[in-house]
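As a representative case, the lines below give one protein's residues and fold tokens.
***
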Amino acid sequence: LTAITTAIGFFAIAYTNIPLIRQYGLTVGASVFIAWLCIICALPPLLILLPVPHARNWTEGRARWALHIMNHKKFIFSSVIAVSIFFLWQGRHLNWSARLFDDLPENQEARISTEFIDSKLGGMIPLNIVITANGETNAWNDFEKIQKLDILTTKIREKKSVGSAVGLSDFLRPIAKIQAHDLPNTRAATAEGIFLYTFAEKNPLNQFLTPEGDSTRIALRLQDIPAIDLAKLVEEIRVETKNIFPDLATTFI
């Protein structure tokens, strides 16, 4: 029973999307069962080889320690209360926040750096939205999809606690403005803008568009907020993404 309950606890974290944690949960959960099997296999020969254990005489005696506690109950109760208050007072220095990057002392250089990045440089927590048009090659040459993508990126960017949001439309806008447009207004103009970036020594669109042109990515940086608020924010972004692209597959990484 102990092995089962322990293994279930570790197998539960195997459902996470983080490969390292998933592998850890599977490895430890399986190891618990292996250890249990080894012990069960070793017990019978050990019981045969070693003498049969017998309870010692003192186990049949009176539980004097319990009598001692009952005779000094006021002192023991007061001591437990005093120790609890002492540790409660000491616990005021502990970090009880649900945030990720505030576990360091306030004046520590690493915390100062993380707080500066979180507030001034676009956030500390990465989130990527991958939008895929299954089976449609060069789907993101469609200027209507680009316009919807820009609407989604703008809505996400305006949300509180979103430090930055960068998508494919942000790269196409400068090229469209040369032609006096905010965004490409034809499929040919969109394809031309994407093609022009291929002349760069390092094409930045490689991080935002797959070679087949069927998937694009919105790169987000979220600020360090409590876990409950962070989960609500991600769910809001998920709903808005699905509302704008109801027919496309979306993945949050």
